[in-house]
C-alpha cells in the first residue's frame, strides 16, 4: 500500500510493474478509457483485458471485462459481417492534402532481421505522397495502430480511407476505428482492384 492506494504484484506476469487494485466504483471508468476511447479502438475482450491487466487488477476482472465488451453497443453495431462491401469504381480527384488516403498490404516478403515481412502502403490521393511501413504481422490491429500513430497523428484525420476487401480492412477493429473517428471507408470491388490508387503502384 502506498499513500492509501493498494498495489498488487502478479506472480503470473513477466512485468515487474505493480498493478493498481481498482475499487468497484472506478471500474467502469477504467473500461471507458481502455475500451471506448479512440486510441483503444474497441478491442475485443481479450485485447481489452491485456491492456488493462498491465496496470490494473480486481477480483473477477476478466469476467467483468468480457461482459462489458459483450454489451458494448458500438461493438455490436459494427461487428464485421461475412458480406464484403463493394462501393468505389472510380477515384475522384481530391483537393485537400490527406483528405482521402488509399491503403494496401504487400507481402509476405522474406523476413527481415527485425522479423518484418509485410509492407503497409499508404498514399495521399491528392498529392500522390506515399509512405511505407514494415509490419511483423498483417493483422487488423497492427494496421490500425500504424494508421493511428503514423498517419492520423502526423497528418490529421482523413475524411475517407480507400482499400480493397482484405480481411484486415473489413475487420471489426478497422470499422470501429473509422466509425469513432468519423472516417468513411470505401471498398474496392474484387473485380476492379485498379480503382485503388495504391494497387496501380504495386508491381
UniProtKB/TrEMBL annotation:
> Gene3D superfamilies from the xrefs?
1.10.340.70, Ribonuclease H-like superfamily/Ribonuclease H
GO: which molecular function terms? nucleic acid binding; RNA-directed DNA polymerase activity
> Which GO terms of type biological process are on file?
DNA integration
Q: How would you classify this enzyme at the top EC level?
A: transferase
What InterPro entries does its record include? Integrase_cat-core, Integrase_H2C2, Retrovirus_Pol_polyprotein, RNaseH-like_sf, RNaseH_sf
Q: Please state the Enzyme Commission number of this protein.
A: 2.7.7.49
What is the protein's name according to its record? RNA-directed DNA polymerase
Gene responsible for this protein: POL_130
PANTHER family from the entry? Answer: PROTEIN CBG26694 (PTHR37984), PROTEIN NYNRIN-LIKE (PTHR37984:SF5)
Q: Which residues form the Integrase catalytic domain?
A: 88-203
Amino acid at each position: 500500500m502506498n499513500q492509501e492506494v493498494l498495489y498488487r504484484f502478479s506472480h503470473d506476469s513477466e512485468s515487474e510493474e505493480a498493478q493498481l487494485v481498482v475499487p468497484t466504483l472506478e471500474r467502469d471508468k477504467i473500461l471507458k478509457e481502455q475500451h471506448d476511447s479512440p486510441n483503444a479502438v474497441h478491442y475485443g475482450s481479450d485485447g481489452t483485458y491485456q491492456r488493462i491487466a498491465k496496470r490494473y487488477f480486481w477480483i473477477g476482472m476478466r469476467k467483468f471485462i468480457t461482459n462489458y465488451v459483450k454489451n458494448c453497443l458500438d461493438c455490436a453495431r459494427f461487428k464485421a459481417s461475412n458480406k464484403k462491401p463493394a462501393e468505389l469504381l472510380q477515384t475522384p480527384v481530391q483537393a485537400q492534402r490527406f483528405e482521402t488516403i488509399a491503403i494496401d498490404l504487400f507481402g509476405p516478403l522474406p523476413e527481415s532481421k527485425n522479423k518484418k515481412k509485410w509492407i503497409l502502403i499508404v498514399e495521399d490521393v491528392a498529392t500522390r505522397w506515399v509512405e511505407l511501413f514494415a509490419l511483423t504481422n498483417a493483422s487488423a490491429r497492427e494496421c490500425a495502430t500504424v494508421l493511428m500513430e503514423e498517419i492520423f497523428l502526423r497528418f490529421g484525420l482523413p475524411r475517407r480511407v480507400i482499400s480493397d476487401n482484405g480481411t484486415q480492412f473489413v475487420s471489426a477493429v478497422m470499422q470501429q476505428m473509422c466509425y469513432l473517428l468519423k472516417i468513411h471507408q470505401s471498398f474496392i470491388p474484387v473485380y476492379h482492384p485498379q480503382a485503388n490508387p495504391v494497387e496501380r503502384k504495386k508491381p
